[in-house]
TrEMBL record:
Family: Belongs to the thiolase-like superfamily. FabH family.
Source organism phylogeny: Bacteria, Pseudomonadati, Pseudomonadota, Alphaproteobacteria, Hyphomicrobiales
Protein's name in the database: Beta-ketoacyl-[acyl-carrier-protein] synthase III
Function: Catalyzes the condensation reaction of fatty acid synthesis by the addition to an acyl acceptor of two carbons from malonyl-ACP. Catalyzes the first condensation reaction which initiates fatty acid synthesis and may therefore play a role in governing the total rate of fatty acid production. Possesses both acetoacetyl-ACP synthase and acetyl transacylase activities. Its substrate specificity determines the biosynthesis of branched-chain and/or straight-chain of fatty acids.
InterPro entries xref list: ACP_syn_III_C, ACP_syn_III_N, FabH, Thiolase-like
CDD domains associated with the record: KAS_III (cd00830)
Amino acid sequence: IIRSIVRGCGGYLPARTLTNAELAGMVDTSDDWIVQRTGIRERHIAADGELTSDLAVAAARRALDAAGLEPQAIDLIVLATATPDHTFPASAVTVQAKLGITQGAAFDMQAVCSGFVFALATTDSMLRTGGFSRALVIGSETFSRILDWTDRTTCVIFGDGAGAVVLEATPQSGTLADRGVLAARLRSDGRHKDKLYVDGGPSATRTVGFLRMEGREVFRHAVGMMCGAVEDVLAATGTTAADIDWFVPHQANQRIIDASAHKLGIGPEKIVSTVALHGNTSAASIPLALDHAVADGRIKPGDLVMVEAMGGGFTWGAALIRW
Ligand code: ACO
């Protein structure tokens, strides 16, 4: 059978960091409040003129380097983002052009913070059905551009960044020992669409708008939804939480991460967390965390890696990868 194998990953963070102390000078908040409620200490902010596609290209180049591949080897680009450069075309085609790729297909995927898991599952399907051979799956966001910098309940939480993985269709034996994406499960429930949304958009207001969030409502649903998706993936693959080597959740905040791992029975030593340094980078958070844990030697070939996310919509999902 064909599996989508991870050939390499890469991340990119804008140079400018914004600390909690700096935020305390902008809105009525404190380092203590932000650290205790979210675990976030600093986040990166894109420079003026530095676009989602620029971040994506930087992450993609690092992933291609890690894979030992030239851009021309890629025939599919799926870019998860809720903050595209423009309403259209898809920022993925800008990434394609900036990388000098003239073959294959490129499109954006919109599932907000779950975007990377949705993009991973979609790309995996497209690779396994044979139409494409090598893909860049990218999460890239410039949430700083849709934040209301006077709203302390949201502006302290998010940051900018991008992460990418190269997936390659490869014949495998069809067992749990196979490398690649072993299973993924995606869910959405639009009844929750007004709990985390942007109050602008081309059709509704002809404006870009600002992010609005009922933080407590998001928190209330997040752990149960994400754990449900993880349990479905475990059941689909005949594995248990004990089999997982690394748990790489969407980096929304440390309390959600810890509560999810606890509920699933995953030990704290298996959690990859970057939220302290990156904040919530939406669709970029998982590939950035993967890159972080590969770079520091934690995630190694053969490891079983569980990724999971939840975001606006609500959307949520999980995927199990043999690295
Ligand atoms: N600094 C200081 N005080 C603040 C701040 C701030 N930045 N923000 C809110 N407060 C105040 C509130 O005004 C409130 O004051 P009040 O009691 O006088 O009314 C008080 O702190 C408590 O507010 P709550 O909203 O109840 O605080 P809570 O403990 O729920 O923490 C938080 C808020 C961190 C947003 C939490 O709800 C959360 O983590 N929610 C999940 C949101 C999330 O992760 N969203 C990301 C997108 S979705 C995803 O990625 C999963």
